[in-house]
């Protein structure tokens, strides 16, 4: 008996909780971090996640899509939290921040990483990493003299807010920051289809990968895209196309993962995964024969 799920909306959070003998499962949506991109709905194996339509007025985003969860079908697997690119979803098992499917080794742990080599930081950098961060996840602690930065004391990264967009990496003039995106892919915009003065994609993009120039034309920075698909889902002309081709994750043996990868990302992503596993197995067999 799995137990019933309670649902509560409070203080900008949607919380689902299930208590069973010796176990507590918790799922949280942080509304202030969510842009309604819909990745969670794509990942959900039960179709329990859904997003209300975005509200658009005069070519601008008036209200974000809002994610909701059907407690009658949700199994509290935490898959939605694993793949949320904005850190807006959290899954907990008892007092551990982890998803049930990860804990049971049906899904791998995603690799999201940002590293700062502080020895490479120089005081004339203009703290570009802090200024460029769309989430204000970076705080640079400096030592000043007469309002002039004399030393970079520390660079602090709030990983709860970081979306691993590489904005800080690209703006750092000394190459002191390295970021690993956990989703890789491609994104294209058929700008000839864009209605005049429409900037909905610009409004919803969390990483500033889509910007509007002074003449109103939409510009895309592929390097900053986190492939959340929010722009694709709100585009009124369906002129934006996002494809996920790779998911960065820890090693896993589960065959379920490859099946899921084909559904969530693409056939090509699943094929690459299988090819990589085949090469590894052949190498291990070769090592055994040699031994």
Condensed summary:
With 291 residues, this protein is α+β, with helices and mostly antiparallel strands. The chain is 23% helix and 30% strand. It has nine helices and 16 strands.
Describe the structure.
The protein is globular. The model is unreliable at 277-291 (pLDDT under 50). It has helices at residues 39-43, 79-83, 100-103, 128-132, 167-171, 200-204, 230-234, 255-264, 267-290; strands spanning 5-10, 13-20, 23-30, 49-51, 55-57, 60-63, 67-69, 89-93, 113-116, 138-145, 148-157, 177-180, 183-189, 210-212, 218-220, 240-247. The strands form 7 sheets. Strands 1-2-3-8 form a 4-stranded antiparallel sheet. It has a two-stranded antiparallel ribbon with strand order 4-7. The protein is of the alpha+beta class and 291 residues long.
**Main sheet: strands, sense, barrel:** 4 strands, antiparallel
Shape: globular
- Separate helix tally: 9
**Separation of termini?**
50 Å
Number of beta-strand segments: 16
Q: What structural class do you assign from the helix and strand content?
A: alpha+beta
- Computed Rg: 21 Å
Oligomer: single chain
- Poorly predicted parts: 277-291
Q: What is the share of helical residues?
A: 10-25%
Topology order in helix (H) and strand (E) letters: EEEHEEEEHEHEHEEHEEHEEHEHH
Order of strands across the main sheet: 1-2-3-8
Mean pLDDT comes to 89
Strand content: 25-35%
How is the topology of this model organized?
Layout: E1 5-10, E2 13-20, E3 23-30, H1 39-43, E4 49-51, E5 55-57, E6 60-63, E7 67-69, H2 79-83, E8 89-93, H3 100-103, E9 113-116, H4 128-132, E10 138-145, E11 148-157, H5 167-171, E12 177-180, E13 183-189, H6 200-204, E14 210-212, E15 218-220, H7 230-234, E16 240-247, H8 255-264, H9 267-290
Antiparallel strand pairs: 1-2, 2-3, 3-8, 4-7, 5-6, 9-12, 10-11, 13-16, 14-15
